[in-house]
Amino acid sequence: MNASVKRLFGQTAVYGLPSIIGRLLNYFLVPLYTAVFTSPSDYGVLSDLYAYVAFLVVLLPLGMETAYFRFIQNQEDKNRVFNACFLTVSITNVLFFIAVYFTNPWIAKWMLYPDHPEYIFLVGLIVCIDSLSSLPLARLRAENKASRFVTIQLTSIITNVLLNVLLLLSFFDPLRPEEGILIILIVNLISSVIKFALVSDMIYSVKIGFDWVLSKKLIAYSFPLVIAGFAGIINETLDRVLLKQLLYNPDVPGSLEEATAQVGIYSACYKLAMLVTIFLQAYRYAAEPFFFSQMNKDDKLVVFQKTMNIFIAVVCTAFLLVSINLGFFKYFIRNEAYYEGLSVVPILLIANVFLGIYYNQSVWYKLSNRTSFGAYISICGALITILLNLWLIPEYGYMASAFATLMAYFIQMVMSYYLGRKYYPIPYNTNKFFLYIGASCLIFLVFSLVRIGLGYAIDVFNQPLLLFGNGLILLYLLLVFRNEKETIRPKRVN
User: Fold this and answer.
1) Is residue 63 part of a domain?
2) DSSP letter string over 245-274?
C-alpha cells in the first residue's frame, strides 16, 4: 500500500482503537438498556438527553482541537498554542456551567422533564468536564503519544461500561426507570472525571495569562468549524428532539409517553447503523492530524485521492454487512417492542456513507483556510434536516427522520465536492465513487428483491438467504481488490 495511505489507516487503527472499542462496548450496552428499560419510552428519555449532550460536546470545545492541529504547524512555540486553546475553552465552559447551575429547573421544564432538574445538572457537568479533557487528548494525538492516548480513553470507557453493567443489573428496579437514568448519568460523570484526572498533568502545566492576539486568530479559524459541527449535530441528533416535541400533544392522554417511545425505538435501531459510524469516528481521530501533516508534501493530492478510494470501499462494505445481516444484528436489541423500527437501518447506513465521504472531502477547506465553507455546507444540511423533519414527522414519524438524514448528508457531499473542485482541486476518481457506491446499492437491491420474492421480512434470519447475501458481499470485495490492488499491494521496485 502507498506508504502515506498505509500510515493513515494504521493511525486509524491506533488512535481509533479506544473509539472503536468504546463504541462497540456501548453497542453491547444496547441489549442491556433495551432489556432493563422494558418500555421504549424510558429508553427514549435517555436517548433524548444524550441528543442534547451531542450538541454540547460539539459546541463547548469551540473547535479548538482542529485549530490546535492547524496552528502548531507554523508555530515554533507549541506550548503557547496549547495554552491559548485551553484557556479559551476553560473560560467558556466555566461560564456555561454557572448558567446551567442557576437555570436547570427552567431548562428541565422546557425539555418536558419538570420533575427531574437533576438530569440537566448532571448533563451540564459531564459535557464541561469532557470539553476540558479534549485539548490534552488532542495534544497527545499531535505528539504521537498513542499508547498514553489509548490507555486514557480505554480506562474511561471500560469504567463506564463495567459500572453500567454492575449497577443496572444489581441495583436497578425496572419499576423506577428514573433511577436507571440517574445511574447511567452518574456513571458517565465518573468516567469523565477519571479521564480528566488522567490528563491533569498537562492541565497543571498551563500558564495563566491570556494571549489575546493568538486567541483571536484561533477563534477566527475555529468558529466556522464550530458552526459546521453544530449544524452537523443537527443532522445527526435533532431528529430525536423533534420527534418528541412534534409527536407530543398535551391534549391527548398518554401522548408524551407514546412520543418518547418513538424516540426510543428510533434511537435503538439507529444504534444498528453504528458499524459505519464506528469506523468514521476512528478514522476522524487519525485523519485530521494526518491531513495537516501532508499539507507541505508534493504528493498530497495523490495521497488524498487514494485515501478516498479505499475509504469509500470500506464504508460501503460496512453498509452491506449490516443491512444484509440485519436478521442477525437485530438480536442486539433484546426487546421485540423495538423491532418495528428496523426498516430505518439501511437508510441510515447509506446516509452515513455519504457523511463519511463529505468528511473526507473536508480536507480542502481545512487546508486552504476556508473553514467558513464548512459552516455554509453544514448549515445547508441542517436546514434540510429541520425542514424535512418539521414537514414529514407529523405524518411519517421516525421514517421521516431517517429520510431527512439521508437527504442532508447527500446534499452536503455534493456541495463539498463541487466547491472543492473550485477552491482546492483534488483529482478524485469519480468513476470509482460511482462504481463502489452503485455496486453496493445494487447488491442490496438484488438481495432485497430476492428476500421479498421469497416472502421474508427485512429482519428475517434465514441461513440460505444470508449465505446468498454474504456471497454477494464477497463478490463486492473482489471487485474492490481488483481495482485497488496497486494501492493495497504495490509492486516492488528493484
Assistant:
1) yes
2) HHH--TTSTTHHHHHHHHHHHHHHHHGGGH
Which segments in the chain show pLDDT lower than 70?
Answer: 1-28, 75-76, 275, 278-279, 281-296, 298, 486-494
C-alpha grid cell for residue 344? 430505518
**Number of separate domains in the chain:** 1
Q: What is the pTM of this model?
A: 0.77
Please state the φ and ψ torsions of residue 242, each to the nearest 5 degrees.
Answer: -70, -35
Residue 182 to residues 201, 227, 353, Cα–Cα distance (Å): 30, 31, 34
Task: Give the N- to C-terminal CA distance of the chain in Å, as an integer.
Answer: 16
* Domain assignment present for 493: no
Residue 111, helix vs strand vs coil: coil
Q: What is the domain range of residue 14?
A: 3-488
Cell numbers describing residue 476: 463486492
3-state SS, residue 449: helix
In a domain, 238, yes or no: yes
Residue 494 pLDDT? 45
Q: Which residue has the cell 494525538?
A: 141
Residue 468 in contact with residue 457, Cβ under 8 Å? no
- Please report whether residue 494 resides in a domain: no
Query: Could you give the CA distance from residue 320 to residue 46 in angstroms, rounded to a whole number?
Result: 29
Q: Which residues contact 27 (CB under 8 A, 6 or more apart)?
A: 271, 274, 278, 332
Q: Is 453 exposed, middle or buried (0-12, 13-18, 19+ CB in 10 A)?
A: exposed
3-state SS of the chain: helix, strand, coil percent to 5?
Answer: 85, 0, 15
User: Cα 140 vs. chain centroid, distance in angstroms?
Assistant: 21
| Whole-number Å distance between alpha carbons of 47 and 342 | 17
> What is d(CA 299, CA 184) in angstroms, rounded to the nearest whole number?
48
CB 1 within 8 A of CB 313: no
Enumerate helices (H) and strands (E) in the chain, giving the number of each.
20, 0
Nearest to 292 by CA among 367, 217, 219, 356: 367
